[in-house]
Amino acid sequence: MPYRYALAEQARTLATRPLGEELRKDLLQKAGNADVVELDFSEILSTSHSFADEFVACLVEEVKAGDIDIEICVSGACRDVERVILKALERRGLETPVLA
Amino acid sequence: MAWIKELGQRAAAEGWKDDFPLAHDLPDSIEIDCSRLELPIHPMFAVRLRVFTDWHREKGRDVLVRPPSDPSARQTFEGMGIDPENAMADEDDTIMPVTRLNEFLEVEEVAGKTQQILEYQLTDVSPLGHAAFMAMSELCGNAIDHGRNALGAYAAVRRVTEPRRQVSIAISDLGMGVPEHIRQRYPEWSEDGWAIAHATNENVSGTSEPHRGIGFSAVIEAALTSSLHAARMDILSASGFCRIQTVQENRKTEVLPATRFRRGTWITYDLVSV
């Protein structure tokens, strides 16, 4: 069963590594047994590289390592936010999750 | 006997003029006379004077800050929150007053606010807003993360629209400083200026965690990819001074001798839109 995590419910701008860590833990708690998790960046104006690394790249890395058994997809990201997310994944040598 | 410092008309025009010593041997009574001060007031001047004021007041000293006599300079001075005992909420949407940061949620707030003051009432400044947001996020995040000290970190922002659209950012903390932090992993980088310059490269960090050390490089990359006219970052920490300029998608790094030792890390970042 898919689960959608709308980041705009938290804030319109996402700046820091500690927030990324906090939201990643919150997401995993709320996602429960979902097999697909959609990271919905709709209405997010900006995100920092540190946030993207901690929230998206760490999550994808955990999936790749087999620590978490879910599929990740990213949706709704504007061009600037998408560029930051892709760069965060590239830094860790990770493949891009599905960009909806 | 009081320690008195009188500032000239142009003392606040750029960030680094005059010395505000964080010294234990100053007398119990301090006076900073800004009565002759005129506009403009650079955010780093505001941050430096606020840190000086807070630091000495927390040591139990009486610090008197005389505001500018010039009405417009006084309004900006009070709006920038330089002296928290005489700060005034200002309707001016071109500045973010000196803000003391102690935890990451405050960084979230100032980073978002910086983007807002740039994009509110200005059209076509999205690249400038994005680059400024990135700078506030990463540099204030570093200040909170690595610059831990009792006072916390400080940040201020000023927006200018003439002759070009420009934003000036000032960030400081009184933590261990970039050179000492980076030498935890790279003890061979003994010269402070070059240690700072190395720290601005991707994946260079004082921590042992992999994938860290992306803050400075992300800020510089944001300036390069935002097609700004120019960006200049000055980093002063310990006895090092490093200047990074990006002009038309080229990056130039200069290491210069610092005029004096500075505790902590002091960063100015000026971004100019096309």
Note the topology.
The complex is a heterodimer of chains A (100) and B (274).
Chain A (H helix, E strand, L loop, with lengths): L1 E5 L6 E2 L2 H15 L4 E5 L5 E2 L1 H16 L6 E5 L3 H13 L6 E2 L1
Helix pairs in contact in A: 1-2, 2-3
Chain B lengths: L2 E4 L22 E5 L9 H16 L3 E5 L4 H9 L15 E7 L2 H16 L6 H21 L6 E8 L5 E8 L4 H5 L9 H8 L15 H11 L4 E18 L2 E23 L2
Parallel strand pairs in B: 1-2, 2-3
Antiparallel strand pairs in B: 4-5, 5-6, 6-8, 7-8
Description:
The complex is a heterodimer of chains A (100) and B (274). Chain A is α/β, with parallel strands linked by helices and 100 residues long. Chain A has a single domain (2-99), classed as Transcription Regulator spoIIAA. Helices cover 44% and strands 21% of the residues of chain A. Chain A has three helices and six strands. In chain A, the strands form two sheets. Chain A has a four-stranded parallel beta sheet, with helices on one face. In chain A, helix 2 crosses helix 3. The longest helix of chain A has 16 residues, at 49-64. Chain A is globular. In chain A, 38% of the residues are buried. The mean pLDDT of chain A is 92. Chain B is of the alpha/beta class and 274 residues long. Chain B has two domains: 1-92; 93-274, Heat Shock Protein 90 (2-Layer Sandwich), CATH 3.30.565. Chain B has helices spanning 43-58, 71-79, 104-119, 126-146, 178-182, 192-199, 215-225, and strands at residues 3-6, 29-33, 62-66, 95-101, 153-160, 166-173, 230-247, 250-272. In chain B, strands 4-5-6-8-7 form a five-stranded antiparallel beta sheet, sandwiched between helices. The longest helix of chain B is centred in the middle third of the chain and has 21 residues, at 126-146. Chain B is globular, with a radius of gyration of 18 Å. In chain B, 47% of the residues are buried. At the A-B interface, strand 2, helix 1, helix 2 and helix 3 of A face helix 3, helix 4 and helix 7 of B.
